[in-house]
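Please, structure for the following, as tokens.
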Amino acid sequence: MAYRCIDKERKIYLKKDSARALSDITRIVFDFDGVLVQTSQSYHQTIRKVVDHYFLEILDLEGEEGKLVTLGDIQEFKDTGLFNNDWNLSESVIIHYLSIVLRRLKQKHVLKNFTKRFSNIQFSELRSFLQILGEVGDFLRHHGINATDLVNTKNDNAVGLKSFLAEIKQNPLSDTLENVFPRVGSEKLTFIRKLAPYDLEKPDLLKRLFEESYLGAEIFNKFYGVPSIFKFNESFLEKETFIATKKTLESLSSRFGKLAIYSEKPRAQGMYILEKNDSREYFDEERSIFNEDLIKSEVDNETVTLGKPNPTLFIELIEKFVRNGGAAYVGDGIADVLLVENARLDGLSNVSFLGVLCSSQHPYRLFSRYMEHEAEAIMRDVNDIPRLLASLGGKI
């Protein structure tokens, strides 16, 4: 697909024959993390912190911080398009390594003893569950399991993290852990998930650990109204930088009216960041979709999770938000362009995708992926949108 550079200074690229579609835009919808606010380091560092804390602190296995999952590993997960939600990504990394733990226990002929002792483990309350995981860690250490060994499996052709990611790339339509972890087996996967409980709506371990790690104790208490258990002092959220400038938001809102958001970020956190950066007035909160909306969505009278790249609620948003003309969705990753692609496959013809590169660990690789999926335009960040539209002859 042919692209031309329409701004050499900012390196803004336009897909051939997309000028008309972009000229017809009457509404703009933004992803939040990585688009409006720079979260790549904060969220990626939180994922590393969660994985490290689970294995090195809760299970107390011997190993070095920052090795179990690197920033490069996380970007590999992101590039599959299946792990836009960082809670899900954290869970998948931990489950992957727990599957290796079970494999090691089997090789040591103690797996039956382990499963017999902990098969009835159930999450009911966090503090007591952490004590049980302490016993799990005692068992693993007694039988020579350590985090350093887990790190050394990364390049194993049979069970390593690299081969796991290769399997995911070969089966990009998988949307359940059962499909993502076919080699583990459903029975073992059920047991593993008991060791690392994750629930979007109920009290759990992994989501709680992630939120406390990301927010820090004080901000966590502010959002969730309960005291911190893990007592992390550092708040990654407070260190994030807001990408969209006042000038950009003013110019876009003056042309398109209130802007909308479609994001898997918790609503309260998104609104807090907009308020903190004096930008809330530019966005239509009622016509924006956040994580809570995706979790509690109902399809055929059943409550389901409709995270990216499932286009169900995205299509509904565009149909309600756009009265005439077209819409543009601004995203920062493969899950975002797949969201638009899937929406088009389901009949939504008036939406364009604008891909930004500023949050990627590998922008040149992401640029190529955007081109493969025929993004209408590719740019450094959201502040390039006014230049893009001005180049088409629009008044902005």
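The first helix runs from residue 19 to 23. The chain has two domains: 3-39+240-391, 40-224.
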